[in-house]
């Protein structure tokens, strides 16, 4: 099982270590640093590294490495999932998962880690339970604690810990009972040079924010549940009910959580809301090139496309770019990463946004071979591009009438246009 | 105020100050001080000096303070064992606390204090906690048993905690069940032999019930445990699968992958005709694809596992090619894995898409990735024949880009394409030659040289090209040197007139100026070959090469089956069985997929045979790769090269002969030592197990009356060593004709076709009298019986042992080699009866030192029985005498090559041992004749 955990920042300092069994020396991280050096880019550090006596399994989150040390055969996914859960918990407790936040709350962090794993076995990872055991820091509480001398560690057994619904605590009370659902869909797509779709799929999630008193039992049904044939559920969902009736039936955790995630695969046709016309060319032996892109709406179901950003990793030999946008603004980082970012804003169909100009190349260098890909971000409010629609939400088990709401939004996920 | 204040230090000694604060009367100050201590600890500072002061703070009702002290204790108890004893009392007291949270905390912490002395005090509280009324305490205690076992395994066994732990599997609370399973699994890992997780249908049922109700982590433990169970029949397997399937929709990817493991394993037991089988296949695809939308680290592990799954059951993901398309900002480790799977899924249906993608990737920035993409194009050409032409033209386009590493990589794969489709794409050679100068990597240079040598007759200036490489001969890597040597010899054999000088130059460079033994040996061999028999040289060097097989990097089916049992583990990430890399002495039990057993029919066809059963005797298999023969035939190019060719077997024999015989006829002038070369035939003959003859002693079968004795079939070539082809067989002799009865079994995943067989030269010139006829393709899990007629007119070479036979079998996948020993009695001819006078004369004539005497023990047969038994195998009794109560039989036999063997067999009534005296002009056969006697008489 998980033996130890090291938190390492981008400059290679180990700023926190926690051991659940015997102490493993920090020097084990040298193997990690070695791999990091070889990988050149932080994202490219392999997640599983073997050393003579241990295995290092790591994740990279929010500019931090979570490196765990394993001594026996453990499912690596188990470890990776757990590390992400640790990062999520920090995020949840401190609002951000950063070196500063962790150092500021080092004792809570330590208490949390101790509570999450016992001898390397996960103990309590549900945010609801953890928060009962260890209260998250708030300014008010730290003031109160310092005056009254009380602590932020709960001294009773968390109620949900052993029930059949470990994700919900008992005795929840709200004056306004609310249940909100966000249907968020991201389009992952690869569009080739000519504008045809090589690959496209929709990654959807339904995130819930439930603030309901007592033990509500909810049923969520859809107009077109058939779209959902590839789903991952929060443990609270009754799988049998879904199999037989295609209704999501569950007793929700308290607060924010991800209810389901789903994938609408490329077998179904995925609508692509934008198109890009592009012409990026480099002339042989002239140390300059042309750059011209235009973005337009495609199948946008009559909604406005907004929040458009285009990022392009330009080839290394590009020295600078002199461009004029018809709208928005652009930046180019000529020194380190050679990234061009164009913040477009929203598309007005009357006047399509474009970005044109010249590219300066290193003189004497050969014409770059690779064609830069365009990475596009956008957002469409009040639309789930797959066509998924919530039909109704019913509540059983409690008497009050909750306030309900559903919001839809479509975004670009990994949306790439090849040139 | 944040915790970062704990990191600030003052001028006075930090430890000193903390000590003062820890001993303060004020509770709040104490707590702050402990927090500071913990903060120092988290960054790896040594605060162990404060041990007694911190332990003093332990007696408190403040839970937070207590927890902090416990945290400290866990870290430092090991370094201060005597002080740690001080804490024991508090622990024991806390284990009785009315608050279950405190009871659990105490037992949990005690387990983490890795001090032997403390563990003794832990036993009683732990025993109580394991039976605690509160499930939270029980589940914590379950894990504590595993901790204790890690510290002192003997203690845990003596105290009977393991049995208590086993009982917890039947606990009413699913969380307790899950933790008990987790603890037992961990203990079992260090004790592979112990039967800790002895699963039966009842306990399985309990686990399945708990599976639905416990946390995600518990589900992983339970699923991994389930995967070790072998259901008794297909019905049970199906019912478990049905209950596991809902886990595929879990949000936790580790749960999903563990569920996939259970399903993949139990699916093996389900009949493919079952409707449920198809349903299950369909259900497996979406969750696997969903794993790919997760974080890159998860994707990586998922992809490594999908790689295995795709090899085992390609049908699951065959329609999902597109999800493996690479995005430019994927981490490199994800890109490379995706590429690998893309090639595995490539088929005629999707090849156009795949090629378009690969071409796109070949223009990316990352060099490693680009190289692999170019290589992938070559693999597609070899895998999907219809696409070969397109692949070649794509590669040519890429060569035109003149990007150095792309060109080099392309040349390496084009060489492979030539090996697969010889004489088809020669038109591209001109383009390749244009890039000769830009090649600076050994592999690309070697590939290019190979191409030039192979097609020397079509390249006008081949001699110039090769000569240009020769200039810097000594600076080249071995790979290039060897290739250059072979290529020039090839060139010489093709255009002898104008290249004589060149070949002499390279031979002298290789033999005289090089320190590399491989190079020198190869040089000498060519030299001798060319000078003794240029025709043979031509046959050897210009032999037709075997076509390379489709997928050379497939994991062997047997290893694959084992790895499928390890889906989701580190073994699956490294694609190695755990035994290959798990640390130290921890034994690992080999896992294997369960055999299919149907509930309605008790015994099924041979395919039900357990895959894991080790064969009794394993014949030696001549390693197919990298051996001398392959080397000689210049097949040492790159990874996709298989063993030496069958078609070229004449050449192969020539090579052997060269080594065995003509060593003395050395070419003039060169002064060299023979040992390195002479050692080679020995190594060829070496891998023959002497224990093989035991195979023929296996009792079974009735003596064959119409022909000589036939031994039962033995496994000659296990599936593991031959990419799934298992060969077993025996030899028979009936009415004057010898045959080899073979059973070919396909244990691989793909259909096998194009079988052929070839023998190496052997002592009695055994050779197939007809080609190996396998009429229909052999589909997976099928087997076929063939009787291959043999004759004895093949070429002769003395083997060691005498009756050793080296066999090569080819199919569409590869060429495999094995060696077997044949019983000599198949060579006893029908006209082996000698005239009496002749017998006497011959017996006297053969010198006495040629006489050999043997005992045949435990053979209580009468003289008549012996006589008739032997007669069936063409051993003829010429005379019988009775001397002093003993029966003396005088017998003769003749071998196929005309060697006569005379025998005197003494049989004493009441003594089960027979004495056999053999006389023969070639005494080396005596030993084998004796073995034949024994085999015949004892069966």
TrEMBL record, chain A:
Any single biological process term in GO: intracellular protein transport
Main location (coarse class): Golgi
Pfam families: Adap_comp_sub (PF00928), Clat_adaptor_s (PF01217)
Keyword entries, A-Z: Cytoplasmic vesicle, Golgi apparatus, Membrane, Protein transport, Transport
Subcellular location field: Golgi apparatus; Cytoplasmic vesicle membrane
GO MF, one annotated term: small GTPase binding
Origin superkingdom: Eukaryota
Membrane topology: Peripheral membrane protein
Keyword Transport: yes
One term under GO cellular component: clathrin adaptor complex
Annotated protein name in UniProt: AP-3 complex subunit mu-1
The species this protein was found in: Loxodonta africana
């Amino acid at each position: 099982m998980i033996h130890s955990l090291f938190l390492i920042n981008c400059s290679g300092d180990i700023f926190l270590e926690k051991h659940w069994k015997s102490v493993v020396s920090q020097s084990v991280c040298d193997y990690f640093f070695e791999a990091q050096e070889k990988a050149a880019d932080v994202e490219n550090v392999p997640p599983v590294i073997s050393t003579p006596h241990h295995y290092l399994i790591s994740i990279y989150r929010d500019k931090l490495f979570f490196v765990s040390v394993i001594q026996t055969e453990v499912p690596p996914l188990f470890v990776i999932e757990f590390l992400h859960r640790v990062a999520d918990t920090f995020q949840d407790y401190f609002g951000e998962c950063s070196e500063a936040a962790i150092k500021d709350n080092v004792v809570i962090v330590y208490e949390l880690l101790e509570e999450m794993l016992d001898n390397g076995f996960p103990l309590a990872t549900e945010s609801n339970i953890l928060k009962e055991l260890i209260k998250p820091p708030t300014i008010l509480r730290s003031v109160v604690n310092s005056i009254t001398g009380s602590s932020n560690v709960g001294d009773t057994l968390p109620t949900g810990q052993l029930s059949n619904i470990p994700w919900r605590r008992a005795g929840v009370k709200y004056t306004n009972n609310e249940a909100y659902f966000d249907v968020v869909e991201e389009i992952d797509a690869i569009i080739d040079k000519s504008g045809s779709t090589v690959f496209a799929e929709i990654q959807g999630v339904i995130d819930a924010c439930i603030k309901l008193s007592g033990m509500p039992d909810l049923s969520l049904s859809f107009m077109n549940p058939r779209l959902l044939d590839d789903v991952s559920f929060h443990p609270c969902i009754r799988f049998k009910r879904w199999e037989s009736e295609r209704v999501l039936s569950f007793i929700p955790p308290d607060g924010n959580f991800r209810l389901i995630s789903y994938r609408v695969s490329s077998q179904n046709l995925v609508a692509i809301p934008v198109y890009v016309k592009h012409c990026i060319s480099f002339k042989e032996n002239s140390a300059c090139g042309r750059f011209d892109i235009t973005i337009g709406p495609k199948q946008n179901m009559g909604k406005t496309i907004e929040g458009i950003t285009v990022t392009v990793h330009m080839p290394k030999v590009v020295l600078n770019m002199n461009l004029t946008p018809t709208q928005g603004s652009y930046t180019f980082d000529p020194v380190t990463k050679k990234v061009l970012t164009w913040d477009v804003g929203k598309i007005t169909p009357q006047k399509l946004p474009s970005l044109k100009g010249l590219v300066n190349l290193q003189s004497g260098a050969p014409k770059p071979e690779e064609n830069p890909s365009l990475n596009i971000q956008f957002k469409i409010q009040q639309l789930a591009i797959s066509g998924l629609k919530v039909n109704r939400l019913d509540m059983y088990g409690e008497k009050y009438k909750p306030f309900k709401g559903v919001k839809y939004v479509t975004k670009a996920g990994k949306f790439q246009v090849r040139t | 105020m944040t915790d970062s204040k704990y990191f600030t230090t003052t001028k006075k000694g930090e430890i000193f100050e903390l000590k003062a604060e820890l001993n303060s009367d004020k509770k709040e100050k104490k707590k702050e001080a402990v927090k500071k201590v913990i903060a120092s600890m988290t960054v790896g500072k040594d605060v162990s000096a404060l041990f007694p002061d911190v332990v003093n703070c332990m007696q408190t009702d403040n839970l937070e303070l207590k927890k902090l002290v416990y945290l400290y204790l866990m870290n430092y108890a090991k370094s201060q064992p005597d002080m740690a004893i001080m804490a024991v009392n508090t622990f024991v007291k806390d284990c009785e606390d009315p608050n279950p949270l405190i009871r659990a905390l105490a037992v949990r912490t005690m387990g983490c204090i890795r001090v032997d002395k403390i563990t003794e005090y832990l036993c009683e509280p732990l025993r109580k906690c394991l039976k605690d009324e509160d499930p939270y305490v029980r589940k914590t205690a379950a894990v504590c048993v595993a901790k204790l076992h890690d510290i002192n395994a003997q203690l845990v066994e003596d105290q009977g905690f393991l049995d208590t732990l086993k009982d917890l599997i039947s606990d009413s609370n699913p969380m307790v069940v899950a933790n008990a399973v987790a603890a037992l699994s961990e203990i079992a890992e260090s004790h592979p032999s112990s039967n800790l997780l002895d699963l039966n249908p009842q306990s399985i049922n309990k686990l399945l019930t708990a599976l639905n109700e416990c946390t995600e982590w518990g589900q992983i433990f339970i699923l991994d445990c389930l995967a070790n169970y072998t259901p008794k029949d297909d019905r049970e397997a199906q019912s478990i699968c049905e209950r596991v399937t809902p886990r595929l929709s879990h949000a936790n990817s580790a749960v999903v992958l563990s569920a996939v493991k259970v399903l993949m394993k139990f699916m093996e037991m389900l009949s493919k005709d079952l409707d449920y089988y198809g349903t299950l296949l369909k259900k497996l695809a979406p969750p696997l694809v969903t794993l790919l939308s997760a974080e890159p680290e998860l994707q990586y592990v998922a992809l490594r596992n999908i790689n295995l799954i795709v090899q085992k059951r390609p049908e699951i993901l065959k329609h999902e090619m597109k999800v493996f398309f690479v995005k430019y900002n994927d981490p490199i480790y994800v890109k490379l894995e995706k590429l690998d799977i893309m090639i595995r899924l490539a088929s005629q249906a999707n090849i156009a898409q795949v090629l378009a993608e690969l071409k796109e990737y070949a223009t990316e920035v990352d060099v490693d990735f680009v190289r692999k993409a170019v290589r992938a194009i070559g693999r597609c050409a070899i895998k999907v024949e219809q696409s070969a032409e397109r692949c070649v033209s794509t590669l040519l386009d890429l060569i035109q880009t003149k990007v150095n590493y792309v060109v080099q990589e392309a040349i390496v794969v084009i060489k492979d394409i030539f090996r697969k489709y010889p004489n088809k794409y020669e038109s591209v050679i001109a383009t390749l030659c244009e890039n000769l100068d830009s090649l600076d990597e050994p592999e690309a240079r070697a590939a290019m040289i190979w191409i030039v040598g192979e097609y020397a007759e079509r390249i006008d200036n081949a001699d110039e090209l090769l000569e240009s490489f020769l200039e810097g001969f000594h600076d080249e890597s071995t790979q290039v040197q060897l290739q250059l040597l072979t290529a020039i010899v090839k060139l010489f054999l093709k255009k002898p007139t104008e290249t004589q000088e060149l070949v002499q130059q390279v031979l002298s460079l290789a033999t005289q100026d090089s320190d590399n033994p491989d190079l020198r040996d190869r040089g000498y061999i060519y030299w001798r070959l060319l000078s003794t028999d240029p025709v043979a040289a031509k046959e050897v060097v210009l032999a037709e090469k075997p076509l390379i097989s489709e997928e050379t990097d497939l994991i062997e089916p047997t290893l694959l089956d084992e790895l499928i049992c390890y889906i989701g583990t580190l073994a699956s990430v490294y694609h190695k069985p755990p035994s290959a890399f798990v640390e130290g002495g921890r034994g690992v039990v080999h896992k294997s997929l369960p055999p299919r057993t149907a509930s309605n029919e008790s015994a099924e066809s041979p395919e039900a045979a357990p895959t894991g059963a080790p064969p009794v005797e394993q014949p030696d298999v001549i390693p197919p790769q990298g051996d001398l023969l392959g080397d000689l035939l210049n097949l040492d190019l790159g990874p996709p090269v298989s063993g030496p060719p069958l078609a070229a077997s004449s050449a192969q024999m020539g090579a052997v002969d060269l080594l065995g015989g003509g060593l003395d006829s050395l070419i003039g002038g060169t002064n060299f030592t023979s040992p390195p070369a002479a050692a080679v035939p020995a190594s060829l003959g070496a891998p023959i197990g002497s224990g093989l003859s035991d195979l023929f002693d296996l009792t079974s079968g009735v003596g064959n009356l119409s022909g000589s004795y036939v031994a039962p079939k033995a496994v000659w070539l296990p599936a593991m060593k031959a990419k799934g082809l298992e060969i077993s067989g025996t030899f028979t002799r009936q009415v004057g004709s010898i045959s080899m009865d073979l059973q070919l079994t396909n244990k691989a995943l793909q259909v096998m076709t194009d079988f052929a067989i070839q023998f190496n030269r052997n002592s009695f010139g055994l050779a197939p009298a007809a080609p190996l006829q396998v009429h229909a393709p052999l589909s997976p899990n099928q087997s076929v019986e063939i009787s291959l007629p043999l004759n004895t007119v093949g070429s002769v070479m003395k083997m060691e042992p005498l009756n050793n036979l080296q066999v090569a079998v080819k199919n569409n996948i590869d060429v495999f080699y094995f060696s077997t020993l044949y019983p000599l009695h198949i060579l006893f001819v029908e006209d082996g009866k000698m005239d009496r006078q002749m017998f006497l004369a011959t017996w006297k004539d053969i010198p006495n030192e040629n006489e050999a005497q043997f005992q045949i023990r435990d053979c209580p047969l009468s003289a008549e029985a012996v006589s008739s038994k032997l007669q069936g195998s063409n051993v003829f009794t010429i005379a019988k005498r009775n001397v002093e109560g003993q029966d003396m039989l005088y017998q003769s036999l003749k071998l196929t090559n005309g060697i006569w063997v005379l025998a005197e067999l003494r049989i004493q009534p009441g003594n089960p041992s027979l004495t056999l005296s053999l006389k023969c002009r070639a005494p080396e056969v005596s030993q084998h004749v004796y073995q034949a006697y024994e085999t015949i008489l004892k069966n």
